[in-house]
Amino acid sequence: MANLQSNTAGIISPNPFWLASAPPANSGDQIKRAFDHGWGGAVWKTLGQPIQNVSSRFAGLHYKGTKNIGFNNIELITDRSLETNFREIAEVKKSHPEHAIIVSLMVETKEEWQDIIKRSIDAGADGLELNFGCPHGMCERGMGSAVGQEPAVNEEITSWAMEYSTVPVLVKLTPNVGDIVPHGLAAQAGGANGVSLINTIKSIIGVDIDRQVINPRVGELSSNGGYCGAAVKPIALHMCASLARDPGFKIPISGIGGVSSWRDAVEFILLGASSVQVCTEVMLRGYRVVEDMIEGLENYMEEHGFEDLGQMTGKAIPSYSNWGNLDLNFETIAKIDADKCIGCYDCVVACQDGAHQCLFPAEEGKKRVPVIDESECVGCNLCEIVCPVPGCITMEEVDNGFAPATWNEHVNDGKPLRPKKGAH
Ligand SMILES: Cc1cc2nc3c(=O)[nH]c(=O)nc-3n(C[C@H](O)[C@H](O)[C@H](O)COP(=O)(O)O)c2cc1C
Ligand code: SF4
Ligand code: SF4
Fold it and tell me: Ligand 1 pocket check: which of 18, 19, 21 to mutate, most ligand atoms within 8 Å of Cβ?
């Protein structure tokens, strides 16, 4: 049996699935139920000076019949008293000692950091997460992403936390920056034991076009929110991988952003994460989603011969390269399985209007299977992407007789490139 135990910067949990700091991790009763469903850890809803939230605060992005491919919120940190939160942390730690509790924190002054860190550890926190990521409301008060966007401030506050903490400290980074690497390095320079990323992306999710007011509507006003959910995963994966492959970056990563299945979790782990955190998927479908995540991850590890998460972490990182190192002589073309084809011609439209005009309708009277001009196919994948039938279009590698040659090799050493297709 594969060992699912995870170790993120010294925070041990029975599996790598943690609730992210958000409404599903708002109270002790909720987190106990989550642990009973199998969640390995939970990052407590961010503690600080309790706030007052607006009433209307969430909005979903729906796309052609699929609800909530993206999600947006203008919620702030905890609105419950610190005493209540700390009492409940202690209760959960007592009832579920094997599960990891990471307490997310956001305060302003050095004294406040010292006080809240001590109280979190006294309550039983296994780790702390410094919320330098919230892109709405709290940043207007000089916290959250206002800290995460300034490496010097990030480093300084992280160093305060390291001075006071006796448990591992993760710094939660904001994606609202051009390049995540200096921000991860700043957390590392401040002494952080690890980082977690991403927090939400600054966004406007949409406009109520009848009222002409931005969503979510608070009376006749709104504000920018934080974007998350399935749609943000590619951005989160990129940021996770950027840090994981940076030679100067040495500390562990807890991956967050759009995890909605075990496959998403595997992707984060292969790109360098030691644990993954989930918010939106739980908000939409409940704690039970973790059951499939655990089973799926376990099966995947067994099928691929991974005995523990350490063997998996970062395994896909070497596959990343600069564009200039990609093989320009690597060639694929589209092949259509006529038996599977349902003749919808979605691929023909896509190739004609969005690619290289080499897929055509069948001749009058013949079965509706598109005809391909292989000599013009550039192997762009678009037809495979749009085809509604799994396995009907496959991209097949072609032996074109040219040895591999990258742009860099071509420019530096004159290595020959195969003739261009579709460039007329
Ligand atoms: C309603 C809501 C409230 C959130 N509150 C917090 C918070 O208090 N502290 C924090 O660090 N992140 C907070 N987040 C961000 C999440 O922890 C997480 O980083 C983000 O949602 C991306 O993960 P996801 O795509 O799985 O939702 C919140 C997210 C949502 C949707
Ligand atoms: S791979 Fe691209 S160019 Fe080739 S047939 Fe498909 S859509 Fe057209
Ligand atoms: S999109 Fe797929 S199913 Fe539809 S015509 Fe093309 S190959 Fe056939």
Answer: 21
Q: Which DSSP string corresponds to 309-376? A: HHHHTTTTGGG---GGGSBTT--EEEEE-TTT-----HHHHHHHHHS-S-EEPPPTTS-S--EE-TTT
Ligand 3 atom closest to the Cα of residue 387 is 1
* Domain termination residue (choose one: 282, 317, 352): 317
Q: Read off the pLDDT of residues 181-199 as tens digits, 9 standing for 90 and up.
A: 999 999 999 999 999 999 9
Count of all residues that appear for the chain in the document: 424
What pairing do the DSSP bridges indicate for beta strands 359-360 and 371-372? antiparallel
Distance between CA 38 and CA 44 in Å, rounded? 16
The pTM assigned to this predicted structure is 0.96
Single residue among 278, 300, 317 that ends a domain in this structure: 317
What residues pair up with 157 in beta bridges, in sequence order? none
Contact 176 CB / ligand 1 (< 6 Å): no
Residue 336 Cβ < 6 Å to ligand 2: no
Is the beta carbon of 355 within 6 A of some atom in ligand 2? yes
